[in-house]
Amino acid sequence: MNIFTYEQPGNTASAIALAKTNGRAKYLGGGTNLIDLMRETVEQPDVLIDVTGLDDRIEMRADGSLFVGAAAKNSALAANAHVRDRYPFLARSILSGASAQIRNMATVGGNILQRTRCRYFYDNAASCNKRVPGAGCDARDGFNRYHAILGASPACVATHPSDMCVALAALDATVHLGGPLGTRMLPLESLHRLPGDHPEVETELLPGELITAVEIPPLGFGRRSTYRKVRDRASYAFALVSVAAALDVDNAGVVRDVRLALGGVAHKPWRAAIAEASLKGNPAGSDAFRRAAEAELAAAVGLRDNGFKIELAKRLITVVLEELMGEEK
Ligand SMILES: Cc1cc2nc3c(=O)[nH]c(=O)nc-3n(C[C@H](O)[C@H](O)[C@H](O)COP(=O)(O)OP(=O)(O)OC[C@H]3O[C@@H](n4cnc5c(N)ncnc54)[C@H](O)[C@@H]3O)c2cc1C
Ligand code: SF4
C-alpha cells in the first residue's frame, strides 16, 4: 500500500478544489472498487477525497424526471418507490449486481466509474495497455470469456462491468459534472469511451471532474421494462451478457417505442440503437425481435473464449422483448 492522505470535504466546491490542487487525487465513493485497486497497487492516489457526504438526494421533479445525487447509495436507488414504480428495470439492474453489503456501500457516482473486471488489469505481472499504455494485452489471447464482442480494439477487449449503467443508458440518463472549469452535463451514453488506441482513457471526464448527480428523464412506458442478466453464478458474478429493455406496442401490434441496451459486451454500456431503429414503427413479434437482434450483433466479433456471447446476446434480446410483449397483451 502506498502512502496517501484522506480528505472529507463538506461540499462539492471544496471537493473540486482539493482535486484541483492535488495531481494524483481520486474521489472516494464507497471504496468497493477503488480500495481493491489500491491494494493491488493498480491505483496509487496520493489523496483520497471522500465524496460520500455530498449530495445523496433521490427526488422526483415536477416535470417527471428523477434527480439522483451521486452520493446516493446503490441500495437506496434500487429501493426508491419512484424507481420501482416508474423504472422497474433500473431497480432490477442494480439488484442483480454485487451483494447487499456492497450495494449498501457503493454510490451511484462510483458505480458509473467502476473499472473493468478484466483479470489482467488487476494483475501487475500481466501485460495490460489499460494499466500501462503500450505494454500489450494479455487478454486478447488469454482467458477472455468475459470480454468484449462489440466495439473492441486491438489494444483492449475489456468490458464495462456495471449493471446499473446499462439501464441508465436505456433511460437516456444525463450525468451532471462539476470540475475546475465549471459545471456541465453529459449524456451517460457519451460518458464512457470505446478503447481505440487509448484504453487507459475510459471516459470523457476532464481532470478533476466530479460526478455530482444523474438525471433520468420521464419514460411513459418505463413500467413495461425489465433487466435480464446471464452470468456464470446466480449471484456475485458479473454479466456475460445482460439486456435492459422497455417496450411500447400499440393496439395494432406495432412498436410505438422501444429502449434496448446491452451489458457485458463492450467497453461501455451498449445502447442497441440499430435494433431499436429496426423495431420502431414495425409490427412486434418474435421474428421482428430476432431480426433486430441479428442487426445489432452483425458487427460482433468473438475471441477465443467468448464467441458464444454473440448468439447469447441475440437470444437474450429476443426473449426479453417477447416477455415484455406478453405483458402488453
Ligand atoms: C465482489 C464484487 C462483486 C461485484 N459485482 C458487481 C456486479 O455484478 N455488477 C455491478 O454492476 N457491479 C458489481 N460490483 C462492483 C460494484 O458495483 C462497484 O464496486 C461499486 O458500484 C463502486 O461504487 P463505489 O461507490 O464503491 O466506488 P469507489 O470504489 O469508491 O470508486 C470507483 C471509482 O469511481 C470514482 N468515483 C467515485 N465517486 C465519484 C464521483 N462522484 N465522481 C467522480 N469519480 C468518482 C473513484 O475515484 C474510483 O475511480 C462488484 C464489486 C465487488 C467487490
Ligand atoms: S483487455 Fe484491456 S484491461 Fe484487459 S488486459 Fe487487455 S488492455 Fe488490459
What report would you give on this structure?
- This protein is α+β, with helices and mostly antiparallel strands and about 325 residues long.
- It folds into 2 domains: about 1-55, 2-Layer Sandwich (Uridine Diphospho-n-acetylenolpyruvylglucosamine Reductase, domain 2), CATH 3.30.43.10; about 55-329, Uridine Diphospho-n-acetylenolpyruvylglucosamine Reductase, domain 3, CATH 3.30.465.
- It contains 13 helices and 12 strands.
- The protein has helices at about 10-20, 35-40, 75-80, 80-85, 90-95, 100-105, 110, 120, 165-170, 190, 275-280, 285-295, 310-329, and strands at about 5, 25-30, 45-50, 60, 65-70, 175-180, 180-185, 210-215, 225-230, 240-250, 255-265, 270.
- The strands form 3 sheets. The protein has a 5-stranded antiparallel sheet.
- α5 (about 90-95) packs antiparallel against α9, α11 (about 275-280) packs antiparallel against α12 and α12 (about 285-295) runs antiparallel to α13.
- Flavin-adenine dinucleotide binds near residues 26, 110, 162, 210 and 211.
- Iron/sulfur cluster (SF4) binds near residues 116, 121, 157 and 158.
